[in-house]
Amino acid sequence: MKFESQPSYSLGHRTPARREAAASEIGANVTLVSQSALGAINRGRVLQALYDNGPKSRADLARLAGVNRTTITGIVQPMIEEQLLVEGDAAPSDVKGGKPARPLYFNPDAPMLGAVLLLPGTIQACLVALTGEIRAVTKAEFDPFGDRQAFIATLTKTLTSTLSHAHQAPFGIGVASGGMIDSDNGVILAVNLAPVLTGLPLVNILQEHFSLPVVIDHHPRALLVGDRWFGPGRGQQNFAAIYTGEVLGGAFFIDGKVYRGLAGSGGELGHTVVQIDGEICNCGKHGCWETVAALPWLRKEAARLGLPQPGSITCARLVKEAEDGSKAADALLDRYTRNVAFGIVNLQQTLFLNSYVLHGDVAGGGAKAAERVRQHVERLVVKRPSQEISITVNGIGEGHTALRGAAGLVLSSHLKVVI
Amino acid sequence: MKFESQPSYSLGHRTPARREAAASEIGANVTLVSQSALGAINRGRVLQALYDNGPKSRADLARLAGVNRTTITGIVQPMIEEQLLVEGDAAPSDVKGGKPARPLYFNPDAPMLGAVLLLPGTIQACLVALTGEIRAVTKAEFDPFGDRQAFIATLTKTLTSTLSHAHQAPFGIGVASGGMIDSDNGVILAVNLAPVLTGLPLVNILQEHFSLPVVIDHHPRALLVGDRWFGPGRGQQNFAAIYTGEVLGGAFFIDGKVYRGLAGSGGELGHTVVQIDGEICNCGKHGCWETVAALPWLRKEAARLGLPQPGSITCARLVKEAEDGSKAADALLDRYTRNVAFGIVNLQQTLFLNSYVLHGDVAGGGAKAAERVRQHVERLVVKRPSQEISITVNGIGEGHTALRGAAGLVLSSHLKVVI
DNA sequence: GCAGTTAGTTTGTACCTCGCACAAACTTAT
DNA sequence: ATAAGTTTGTGCGAGGTACAAACTAACTGC
């Protein structure tokens, strides 16, 4: 399946950044900002403001950004003509009177975004509208230890089926995957639990097959973007997404942008050391955070303490059993959330993001579990004056956040807010 | 002492950013970039390129930044007229011939920067030229537990003496201080070892006294800026400065800018946990990195192992004794550098900066100590393909790096590369 | 019906980068 | 010595962007 007609107005990404290429060829570490880049930046920021604040009138946007109303008109008008944005019904005017404002927001019928969530054994694909709406979810399974060609066939088939629901060519495809990802080169470096994915140049494969822009990033980063887009991180400039489950991971939103180290590294929190010479970890080192705050630890402890069905213990069950009066469950929940807290404490001492969104197993324990974690963090951190630490769970639901985040990856790679 | 004539060309900071103020008043989280801001940004980047690469011709700068030569001329000409930059002698032309290039660099006679280093009990002040040269160093002492007015008098007297060596009004004064600093509001929040400084609104005091722009930040951040300016971090886009000594701290240069959390927080690495329920720390928590990698730990272990003069043990001495054949010193050095490595490992797993500059006690151990730390880090980190970790010491010398960094703080607060 | 208020647009201006053309200065080949 | 080729640095006009002032549109309240 090939999409022919690329929308001429690809989300503020008008001209390919040939200057960047030229500059990077000679290894320049400095790039000046050109006028046209300035336009793209400001277009991106206006869209960002719309995501952060919901539908807003031109005048509101101007006030929000501290710029002239005419500037906003200039930025917004072409996007309305391209049918990326739409004017809503006139809002009732203020108490003081005046011409009623016409709120602007994303056109639900604008091209959508393709999203793929790749976890060991399962594929999920869907379309995401610019309004955040999720459509045409398709699921499939694959053998994590199987044949590479078979996997690629399954993936393209699933994605083709999903994309066929779109009326027009999507802006691009975003992929979120477990494991270690090189997002710069679009390659899956390694997934311990799904060797078939190891070394897969997925971006090239999908780009060729669908003739669409494709971006890939690792799972926690997709969760982060999903949180930022329509979740608890909405409008925030600094926060982290933390994933707990069979493994631990994290991703950071720093000063208004997603943190990505070289080749898309960063956030491999599972293997930070919290116990020098502690238990051995999957990675071969000792005392990683993952050895005391992931599900394998929880199962082992549940078994040791004689809790019922330790093999299928989760934070959610632990919260429930503790509420039902089990002292043992309560005690274990306390130790579990404390161990989870240590990783967050170390992150807090390092970056002081002050805001953390939990995903995965601990998030399954809901607000109760999050509050326990928060209390441990508060106790364990060196507080600065008037500093509030917020720890929340994303109520939207794991899969949807990751898929939306995968879609958001495409957006953020196009609205280069970074300069 | 009051300086009257502010240079009209304050390092690319032409107009006060009144828009930012307007936008922040209504709590906007989005700011559009204006034309004049763009000019300031690009001016800043050209200066940055000069710092990173040394004297360069207009044509070289244009190539480095990937822009037109005429653009560089437009940026650079006013700065030459303001005598901020000077044209050097014509360089011999290339093998292929052509008009010889005229390298540009900072005018040694341009206004300088005032710098202050404030550590418990001691004050150091100096002038720093835009070329990095340090002049008119003045030192003084103060009673860490003494009277606040007395301290302020000593500080202003010292600084006045230093500043009197300048021919013209400096661009501003940068202060680096130990302890916890609120750099947004210019207040020293707390210094455990010097209570007289606690709660001191130093920026206001100095600004009023000298009528100059004043910035303050904590010690590791000054080291970072010093490293970046003329040290091992020169030209780098991502690295961290790590300070070890009586306490531990760090600061990060991320994606080409100094990382500062809310109110100048961030980098309080000493109190990240590396040993859950480990030894108790000064901060009241258990198992902080500081409990196993700072000088108190080293002294305690040296005493326990019966090393000579454990009370004055340092990394430098340990390296020397190990070289002289002491097995005990060698073993302790290995444990010490390993413990130091754990903090760096955790930082590496979190941000993947790949490059670390050591300061303080471990830096006193020179390249040998750094190499030991590097080997431990290599062993303890989960490596990504083709990832090199560099750990260096700054050979320029502690005090000078911090002073130069303090001066650099003024520069970087004026060449707002951040958008 | 009119004053007051707010939203959005039109018009002209200022600023910035870019591409082109050109003079200046130097090397190499004849 | 002269000509050709190369590189540096500078005017000049074009194109794009944000801004300010002035205007129209639409609504409220008296």
Determine and state the CATH class of the largest domain in chain A.
Alpha Beta
Any idea of the CATH topology of the largest domain in chain A?
A: Nucleotidyltransferase, domain 5
* Overall spatial form of chain A: globular
Into which percentage range does the β-strand content of chain A fall? Answer: 15-25%
**Unreliable stretches covering 5 or more consecutive residues of chain A:** 1-27
Strand order of the largest sheet of chain A: 5-4-3-6-9
CATH superfamily of the largest domain in chain A: ATPase, nucleotide binding domain
Write down the secondary-structure element order of chain A. HHHHEEEEEHEEEHEHEEEHHHHEHHEH
Number of domains as seen in the coordinates of chain A: 3
What does the largest sheet of chain A look like? 5 strands, mixed
The termini of chain A sit apart by 35 Å
User: Biggest interface, which chains?
Assistant: A-B, 75 and 74 residues
Number of helices of chain A: 14
Report the count of strand segments of chain A.
14
- Rg of chain A computed from alpha carbons, rounded to a whole number of angstroms: 23 Å
Assembly state (oligomeric): homodimer
Mean pLDDT of chain A: 87
CATH architecture of the largest domain in chain A: 2-Layer Sandwich
Helix coverage percent of chain A: 40-55%
